[in-house]
Every structure is written in structure tokens, then in C-alpha cells.
Amino acid sequence: MLHGETNLSADGRAARPAGVPGSGQPERWRWPLLLAGIIVVLAMVGGVSWKTTIWAENQSYARLAEEGRDRLILYGAALHSEVEKSRNIPLVLASDPSVVAILGFPPQGGGELEAETSALNRRLQALNESLATSAIYLLDDKGLTLAASNWNDGSGSFVGQKFDFRPYFLAAMQGQPGRYFALGSTSNRPGYYIAMPVRRDGRILGVVVVKTAMDDLEHGWSGGGEKVFVADHSGIVFLTNVASWRFRTAASLDHEARLRIDASRQYGEAAPLAPLDLQEDGLLASLDGNRYVMVSQVLPDGDDWTLHVFLNIDAARAQARNLGFLTAACLALAFLIVISALQRARLMRLYTRDLEQRVAERTAALVDANHRLQSEVAFRQRAEVDLTAKQEELVQATKLAALGQMSAGMVHEINQPLTALRSYADNAVTLLGLGRSEQVRDNLAEIAGLTERIARITGQLKQFARKSTGAAEPVAVRAVTAGALSLIAGRLRNEWVELSWEPPADDVMVWGDDVRLQQVLINILRNALDAMRGQALPRLSLTCWGDGDKVWLAVADNGPGIPASVMPHIFDPFFTTKAAGEGLGLGLSISEGIIRDLGGQLTAADGQEGGAVFTITLRRA
């Protein structure tokens, strides 16, 4: 810019130069304000996202707790069912006469006691196998095992073992049912013991005990997806689907509880009884470094047993975090949308005038293009009408050209009747002069027959030359074929063609137009005759057959056939293999179009014995 020039705005007023003081004030504060706004928005988004995450976690924990309570019911029912299935067994055996009889024998019972005991051993063994329990055995009033289901288990047999230290024996000897979970002192396998006193005349003679293993129950819990354990009144975990938790305590044992458990050998000598690192915080609990949603329930079975179910919270926390991230993303997106909307509104204000001008220009261009398109459509419609008319004229011209080519044969056909007519007429004059009226009448009858023959020939030519109505109607295949053959009969005789045509016994009717069908058939026959030109024994065969709603008419020759390179183009317009001046290449194309318009199909193929076969497929009428 030259020195002294002045910047002008769009409305002609002088614009403030860039270097004038005060002109950069809005730009100076724009970016700090924008940065401060972004920081405030990010802080708001972070706060809302954090609160959403906390709320979603609490909701997820509550849902997990509700699900855990449902699982508590299922696990408790499974445990109750496992305990109940063997509750009545000792009650029934305690009143069994053979059991009472064995306990009533004196200590030195002799051979009869041994026989009774052996029979009871086998009976208890069979009963234990059928009920799928762990063991069934009989104790006397001193805690000595007299008979057991594992009597033949060698060193693992309970027979001869004393269990007077077990709490279930002590409870039964006091007249109460004894229920107790413990580790077997002989088998070292955990199980649930149920004991019933055996009475006679009000005196307790001994105790019947049934032990049920809980292995199947624990195995079934392993497929639930949650971690489960059952603790007794001392807090010792005796049933669980986590092996490392078994025989550990939910809380530290006091000295008296430890002495009581050691005296009863409830959990064996090798049980760790170490406390679990269990910390509870509302619905949540920490165990072995992992956090769970824990739900608990005191069970009616056993001696103050408590069932605990632990549900993993990793999936719930992940969902909560995802919800927090989604919330943050939505808020950030909303912020970007607002910024984008404001920016868009600003740009819209800046470019409204330019946009309106472009829209006006575009509208004018579209109107002009629409006018040109309408003109082109009208032109093409007129061209299509002209093309249709030209096509009809071309079809008629082709048919007349074929008619001209057949005229030479027709002249020969008509010449013979005309020669005969002259001969019969001369004879009639002579016979009339001789007064032989009867022979004159016969000559006149012959003359009438010859004129009818000429009329039939010219009628076929007239029918072939006229334009078709185009309407489909029932047409007899025999009549169409006969008319076509009559028009080329002279050429068939002149070229010594052997014709094979057996009309169907019952005339077949098809949907078509007799003029157009005859035109198609004559065109195919003429092509066949042209192809057989030069053959020593030309043969032409016509075959007609039908099946269902279809009728086929095939024309076969013994010419050279159709080359493979020609077959794909056989029905293309203006395609011909004849010499120049012998054809336009429209015959087969027009014929194929005529058959297609009548709802049929025209196909070409090589014959089985050489030559070509053209097949016309039509709808049966």
C-alpha cells in the first residue's frame, strides 16, 4: 500500500488500521478467556463423571447384593436338601429289632452275636451303597463301634474304633439327636454326622450314626460363578468351593474354642484354623486382596451355621467406569456441539449474503437445465415414435422383399395351371363343335379346379403380404405350417429338397398371430434352404410336440450348421453371414422379436446329426 492511503471497509467507511492502539484489545483477551472457559468446563465434566461413576457403582453393588440373596436361597436349599436326605436313616435304624438285639447281647455273646453282627454289617453296607451316604455304623453305650457299612475296608473300617469323644455321640447318649460336621478321625474325609439313640425299655443302649459326605455339594457350588463358604458357630469354614479357605476362620478363635475343637478332633490335627483376612464395609468385603459384594444368612440346619456368598465386583466397577467415561464423553460432545453451533451461527451470519447469491445462481442454472432436459425428453419421445414407425416399415419391407424372392417360384406354380387352362379351353371349343356336350362339361369342371388352385396360391401371397393386426389369438399350428410350406413349395421341388413333416394327429392351438407366425416360419425355412444350397441330398425336417402349457415347433436341416463364433450373434440386428446383396441381417432379429412379443422364445442350436435346429416355443391356447 502506498504511503498515505486509507483502508476502507465494505460499506465505504475507513477501517481501523492494524497498528492503531486499541485495535488488538479483543484479540489480546480472547485466548486467555477461551483457555479459562475450557478449564472450567473440564472441571465440571470431571466432577459430574466422578459422581456418576460413584452412583453407578453403588447401584451395581445393590443389584449384585439382590442377586446374591437369590443365590443364598439356592445354595441354602441345596445344603438343606443334602442334610435332609439322610436325617431319617438313623431314626429308622434306631428302632430296628436287629439293631436293638445286638446292643442287648451280653459282652461275651458268642457265635450267635457274631452271626447277628455279620448280617447287620452286610445290611448296613447295602444300605449305604443304595443311599449314597459316606458311612453308617452302630456304637454301644461306651462309644465302641459294633457294626459298620465299611466293615470290610481293612484299616479304614470303623469296627472296633471308639468315638466316645465326638459331640454327636455325647448328645445322643443324653437322649437328643446329635448333629455335627467334622473331619473323619479314621477316613480323614469331612462329612455331616447325624446320630440317634437306640432305646429299650427307656434305657439308651447305644447310638446309630450316619455320615454324609459333602463333596458333591461343593462340586456343584463350583459351577455357580460365585465364591461360597459355610462357617460353623465358631466361625470355622468347613464347606466352600475355594480350597484355600477350607478349615480357616472368619475371625480369630479364643482359647476355649480352640481347646474344645482340639478335644473333639473336629477338624483333625492338620487343620490350619488360621484366620481369613476378611474385612467388611457395608455391602462390600475384602478377602485375600480381592473385593466382593458379600451377602450372608444364618441357616436353620446344623448348629448356628452361616452361609456366605461372595460376588465379584470387577464387572460392576468396569461398567460404572464406562458409564462415567460415557458421561464425560457426552458432556464433552455437548460442549463441542454448543461451540460448533455458535461458530456455525457466526459463519452463517458472515456468509448469508454470499450463500443467497449462490443459491439464486444455482436455481437459475437448474431452471435452465430443466428446460433443456424437457426439450431433450420431448425430442427423444418424438424420435421413439418415429423409430417405431420406421421399424414397422422395415418389417413390412423385409416381408415384401421375401415375397419378391418367392415370386419366381410362384410364377412357375401359376404357369402350369394357366397352360392347362388354355389346353382345356381349346379342347372345349373343339368338343363343342362336335356336339360332345358331356365332355365339354368335364373340361369346364377341370378349368374351374385349376382356377381355384391359382386363387389359393395368390391368396397365400396376399395374406403373407398384408400387415398383421398384432393381436394374439388362438392359431392352429397345422394351418400356419401348411401355408408357409405352400409358399415355398416351388423352391422345395426345384432344389430337390427331401421334406419330413408329420402334422400332429390332434391339431395343436397356440397363442399367436397367423400372419406373423407364418412370416417367422417362412424366414426360418428360407434360411435353411439357403444353408443347404450345394448339398447333394438336402433334407428339411419339421417337428411339433407339446407338454403342459408349452408347444414346440422345430425346423432342422442338414446344412453345415452354425459356427461357434456366429452363435452368440445369430439374433443381432444387421448381422449376416450371406454375401453382400443377399440379405440385410434382419430376418432372424425380427423373427426373434415377433416370437418374444407373443410370449414365446426362438432358439438356435446345432443338430445332433449336423446342420442347424431352430426351435419356436409358444404358449398353448
Strand order of the largest sheet: 7-6-11-10-9-8
The percentage helix is: 40-55%
Strand count: 18
**Fraction in beta strands:** 15-25%
- Uncertain segments are 1-24
Query: Mean pLDDT, nearest integer?
Result: 76
Structural classification: alpha+beta
Number of helices: 13
Distance between the termini: 94 Å
**How would you sum up the major sheet?**
6 strands, antiparallel
Shape: elongated
Rg value? 57 Å
Question: Which key features would you list for this structure?
Answer:
621 residues, alpha+beta, 6-stranded antiparallel beta sheet, 5-stranded antiparallel beta sheet, 51% helix, 18% strand
Q: What are the SSEs and their pairings?
A:
Blueprint: H1 25-84, H2 88-94, H3 97-104, H4 111-131, E1 135-140, E2 145-148, H5 167-173, E3 178-183, E4 190-200, E5 203-212, H6 215-221, E6 227-231, E7 237-240, H7 255-264, E8 278-281, E9 284-287, E10 290-298, E11 306-312, H8 314-433, H9 437-465, E12 473-476, H10 477-487, H11 489-494, E13 498-501, E14 509-512, H12 514-531, E15 539-547, E16 550-557, H13 587-597, E17 601-606, E18 612-619
Parallel strand pairs: 13-15
Antiparallel strand pairs: 1-2, 1-5, 3-4, 4-5, 6-7, 6-11, 8-9, 9-10, 10-11, 12-14, 15-16, 16-18, 17-18
Helix pairs in contact: 1-8, 8-9, 10-12, 12-13
Q: Would you give an account of this structure?
A:
The protein is 51% helix and 18% strand. It is built from 13 helices and 18 strands. The strands form four sheets. Strands 7-6-11-10-9-8 form a six-stranded antiparallel sheet. The chain has a five-stranded antiparallel sheet with strand order 2-1-5-4-3, with helices on both faces. Strand 10 (290-298) and strand 11 form a beta hairpin. Helix 8 packs antiparallel against helix 9 and helix 10 (477-487) crosses helix 12 (514-531). The longest helix is centred in the middle third of the chain and has 120 residues, at 314-433.
